[in-house]
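Instructor's aside before we start: the two examples that follow are unrelated to each other. I chose them only because their records fit on one page, so don't look for a connection. First example below.
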Amino acid sequence: MEYMRQSYYLLLTGLLTFGIACQKAANESTTFSPKFKLIPADTVHFNNFVDCNMAEAWVGDTFRIFPGKYGEDPLWGEAHDLKFADGRHAEEAFHRKAEEFTEPKMPPNVPIGQEGLHGAAWFETVYQDPKDASGKTLYAVYHNENYPSTLPYDAKTGQGYIDHKWPEGLTGPKSPAAVCRIGIMKSTDGGRSWDNKGLFIEDLQPRMILKPHNTSKTFAGGVGDPSAVAVGDYLYLFYGEYGFPGVYDEATYQREEEYKGQCISVARIALNDLDNPAGKALRWNGKEFSAAYNGFGAPIASLQIPVGEGGGPASSPTGGFHWGPSVSWNTYLNCWVMLMGKVTSTSWQGSSVYISFNKNKDLGEGKNSQEWTKPQLLLDKPGFIMWYPSLQPMNTPEDIAQKHTCMRLGQKARLYIKYIKPEKSDYMSEYVIEFEK
């Protein structure tokens, strides 16, 4: 009897301890919600073209930014707007006039059928190789867009797109929708010249969402609008997921199935593979990083907009989804911060910006990369269309001493957004964000 009483006591104690631990974990999970406030500030109007996340790095004591677009585009014309500008700190670089920007030497677009850069490219994140003490070795993660005309389907490789029932694009009924992919370029001279290293991730033709279902005037499918951060031995890529989560079939298409596989997703690649990235990245498949770079991954569930709150598939004009993530490590909060836009109608329309947090510094352990808080409204301006929100360093002594960039920030930062209006677009900042523990 004494033995049974001791066993019962040990069992009861264990269950009680376990229950307390579970309750503590649950409480920590539910109470983790850093506070923030937007403080109106003097308005800063950026003086050059921006249509993406602002890629940047400190090259020595120089803060360098890489906005713009480069390459072939049958809808908007060939572009040479991808340029760089310098400053002693972020605010000085952001104040540069258009004539003070420099166009780097870029890899040329190659003819159809050849390996290399097809379509246009936008730099979204710059990763700086810490092994180079000069700071001049940079890897640019770029958003790439193509069409059936710039990348026609090749049956041997499975690359490219078939111009059949292709959805409408942004410039009218006769314009085609683009397909986005993500690649990597490398510079060894601080960003003055770049070599194309190949694709990070992409979606192939079977995932494209065609007519009659795709009527959103956004993308035919693909992966794009990324933000990347380095943790340990990997570069983690957060990106928009726009394709069908499987093989699209007009006869069996279901709106609900498309919705389940879309929103903001994550993939990763070993830093040692950045010089030869093709085929090396792995997507999150719902349990681990094991889905192929051109396979079927799973989006971050906590960032999806519930159907009851207006969520829907990207191919629908009434689909609501978050997109365009910008991720940074916050040294004050000791957590990750993500800003994102919200699409509520056709042609990427949406007037609000959202924020989410992740307390797990190591994004590779378990399901840490998935544990983002439910997005909270950061700013809403009805009547405007707002794209590419990001947090940027200022000219404070801390920001300069710590060489902060959009990937690493402190308690205060500038909020930049691209505002789209009928008459023009304007990339600017009207607020400073301040975090509170």
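Example two begins here.
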Amino acid sequence: MIGFSSYAGVMESPMNSAEEQQHSSPLATSWSKKEEPNKNQKPKGVGGFVLVHAGAGYHSESKAKEYKHVCKRACQRAVDQLKAGALAVEAVAAALVELEDSPFTNAGMGSNLNLSGEIECDASIMDGKSLQYGAVGAISGIKNPVLVANRLLSEAQKGKLSAGRIPPCFLVGLGAHEWAIGHGIPPCPSEKMATKFSLSAYKRNKRKMEVAEEMDTGRNQTKKKRLSAENHSGCLDTVGAVVVDLEGNVAAAVSSGGLAMKHPGRVGQAAHYGCGCWAENACNMNSYSTAVSTSGCGEHLIRTMLARECSAAMQSEDAHQALLEAMQNKFISSPFLASEDRVLGGVIVLRCCRCVEAQQSQNIQGILVEFLWSHTTESMCVGYMSAQDSKAKTHISRLPPGTIPGQSLAIEGGVCRLMSVAE
């Protein structure tokens, strides 16, 4: 399933077509010239763009409205920040807070419980301008783990600590919790972070495990495989966002409660460098700024470093074809996952460049954004919005009927022009 939509302030629904259909990259034809804007010219009207996801897994029709609502709220929160002049990294953190606060997502409030019945969360954030990264793993008692990750990033940007010590970029467990409290982030009892949905899921999965352990060896193995498949397919493992701001900076973030019934202390892709998210501004080596956020089975995403792989692929001329090949060759068919029956994951990606188009003696400056999402899970819920739009667009992408999750993929996306007139 492949599709594209394009808009400049007005959003259109993605169009679907066969997976084999080829697309030329809209970035190659939409603008007549690509160059750095004149620093003496002051652009007006460019505000930024945000793309969010509420997890790659399975999104039931009965809760589709809730998933879409939280994506809309996350987009609006980020856009509000962008309109106020915030940089991409601040806007992406704001979007993640909204996603973490929803009881319907597996991040922050309502996260999956581990084997011990506790909530341990992972989160990370990356700033494409500074290339700084902050992350927390298996952290308990913090309502919004992304705020800790963001604070780690901002503290690292201040430079070395006393006596020349290197500031941390990745903290886990009790140490992460204590660091957060010490830096003014309030604690939240784990029992208050559990919801009726997460508690009932924990009790249901625990009963299944107890039954499986009582069965004979042969049937036990079958039951465990079935439970594992249900776990991967059913849980909405990880939420995330990618943002480009009015200056063309990009940022990405990701947050997760982890797989259901995970072992205490397990850290998923949401905290690992290059696996959960990636953001990198354009430079001499790269023509495009790129930002990526991933979701799915953390172990699969860690072993393939999917976020960084997808970001690197976005430097190709045809972004759509590049992402299709990356998901197929670097993920589904990865030699690092050769032993897996089903490879489960999803990504949201954006790439952008500054452009100038001469028109009636005016320089129309702006940022051309191409955004995509792809997944091998049954479904993936996304939302997107530019600062020039009145409301966000949301979509639940699903694999075509008859296809097997983990062995096939869906890919969709669109193009956004963020335009301004230079004075």
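Residues 2-422 form one domain.
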